[in-house]
Amino acid sequence: MPGLKDVKDKISGVKKTAQITKAMNMVASAKLRGAQEKMERFRPYAGKFAEAMSDLSGGMESTDLPLMEVREVKSVEIVVVTSDRGLCGSFNANIIKEAEKLKRKYEAEGKQVSVVTVGKKGMQALKKTGTLRKSFNDIMGSFQMFNAREISQDITEAFLAGESDQVDIIYGKFISVGVQRPEVEELLPIKPVASEEDVPQETTGATGSYTYEPDPNEIMEVLLPLYLNVQIYHAMLEVGASEHAARMTAMDNATKACKDMITDLTQLYNKARQAAVTGELMDIVGGAEALK
Amino acid sequence: MAQIQLEVVTPSGAVVSEDVDIVTAPGVGGEFGVLANHAPFLSTIKTGTLTFKKDRVAKYLMVTGGFTEVSNNKITFLVEGAEFGNDIDVERAMQAKERAEKRLTQAQQSTEKVNRVRAEAALQRAMARLRTAEMSHS
User: Fold this and answer.
1) Are residues A115 and A71 in the same domain?
2) How confident is the model at residue A1 (pLDDT cuts 50, 70, 90)?
């Protein structure tokens, strides 16, 4: 039976841990709210952008734009977006696992694979594979559009230089506070965006009724890199929200586990104390008996 | 005077949403103005100053690259960044300009094209900021 003092120390230790996990849970939930607001603010921009893209690409026939060029795929680049910090359950592990699976799949097809990571956790896990081309670290805390632009410029250069023929992005999609799922999307070459509903709108077939300045092709040339920024920024937003949601759940579980442990330990402590009291009583009674 | 609905949307939210008399924007092919009931129109925007007037009061907005769409008496700007002239930190913009200039001269000596492009963009942004701030203070 462990000594009384040992149990007491352990209880206070676990209590402190519970305090920390509780605090982390609250911080994560506040940050999640912030991340969700950020997503909400981004929605009008992204929506409008997709709309314009589909309007434009619908009216285009030639796809001689370098970012839309479909080549025979010999090498694939995978952009893995994870969080910078851990303690968020299996969130990052799931993304990394999925990335490795994708990588093996491409390699089995005889394609060369390079990896770009966003977020420290992905970098730490994937640098061992030796295919890490570049990593962007310590930006997930408070990223802005220019961070996304930096990444998109980097992968665009590689694509245009012919170092990669296809670029995929993999990130943790925020489904709900309880569920986050790794999601794979193709970034490059950019595919013409199909409009979400094929209902004839006021603007469909009306590509001709717009005046373009300069012509649609040149507009697309400007828009495509911006569109890539939008997609990367979106992935980062999703990971941002997912990370905090995952941490919330993980910390909640940890706090619960701590509470269970405290209950068990308190029982153990009470038993130990009772045993000690009983033992002392027996001694006293025994001593008094002997004096008679 | 007939008005047109102006909206400036950035990734971090809408910056402007109001009815105005006239909008002047830095198009890729040069500056252009839009009045109420303009024909449907789509153009790319370069880094520069967006001006809009309402009741003879002009407001200036520094915008970075994006595009604009005019339809149904509404003009929407989708830009990566937008700042009101009055909110611009002139000192910081000056420093950014100097930094970008320095980087640009460095980049010109080396063969790296990337850095030059980035430095040029940074310089453009800094200059647009300064110009916009100046315009809204005069």
Assistant:
1) yes
2) low
A88 is catalytic: yes
Chain B residues close to A58, C-beta within 8 Å: none
Q: For the segment A182-230, what is each residue's pLDDT rounded down to a tens digit?
A: 999 999 888 876 654 444 444 444 444 678 777 778 888 888 889 999 9
CB-nearest partner of B10 from A45, A209, A214: A45
Structure confidence at residue A57 as a pLDDT band (50, 70, 90): confident
Give A166's contacts (C-beta < 8 A, 6+ positions apart): A73, A75, A76, A77, A186, A188, A189
Note the pLDDT of residue A58. Answer: 67
Which tokens is A251 given?
Answer: 């910390």
Q: What percent of chain A has pLDDT over 70?
A: 91
Beta-carbon separation of A49 and B78 below 8 A = yes
Contacting residues of B for A222, CB less than 8 Å apart? 28, 44, 65, 67
| Closest alpha carbon to A228 in A79, A17, A124, A103 | A79
Q: Which of A210, A229, A231 is best to mutate for the B interface (most B CBs within 10 A)?
A: A210
Q: Which of A41, A48, A56 sits opposite B76 (nearest CB)?
A: A48
DSSP string, A102-133: HHHHHHHTT-EEEEEEESHHHHHHHGGGS-EE
- Catalytic position from the list A32, A88, A246, A254: A88
CB of A45 within 8 Å of a chain B CB? The answer is: yes
Q: pLDDT (tens digit, 9 = 90+) per residue, B78-108? A: 998 898 988 888 899 999 899 888 888 887 7
CATH code for the domain in which residue A264 is found: 1.10.287.80
Residue A239 predicted with pLDDT over 80: yes
> Which among A45, A203, A50 is positioned nearest to B40, based on CA atoms?
A203
Rounded-to-integer distance, Cα B40 and Cα B32, Å: 14
Q: Inform me whether the C-beta atom of residue B10 falls under 8 Å from chain A C-beta atoms.
A: yes
What's the domain count of chain A?
Answer: 2
Contacts of A41 in chain B (CB under 8 A): 11-13
State how many domains chain B has: 2
- Please give the model's pTM, rounded to 2 decimal places: 0.85
Residues of chain B with Cβ-Cβ distance to A153 below 8 Å are 114, 118
Is residue B32 domain-shared with residue B64, that is, in the same domain?
A: yes
Please give the residue range of the domain that contains residue B95: 88-137
Using 70 as the pLDDT threshold, list the residues of chain B that sit under it. Answer: 111-114
Contact predicate B67/A52, CB 8 Å:
yes
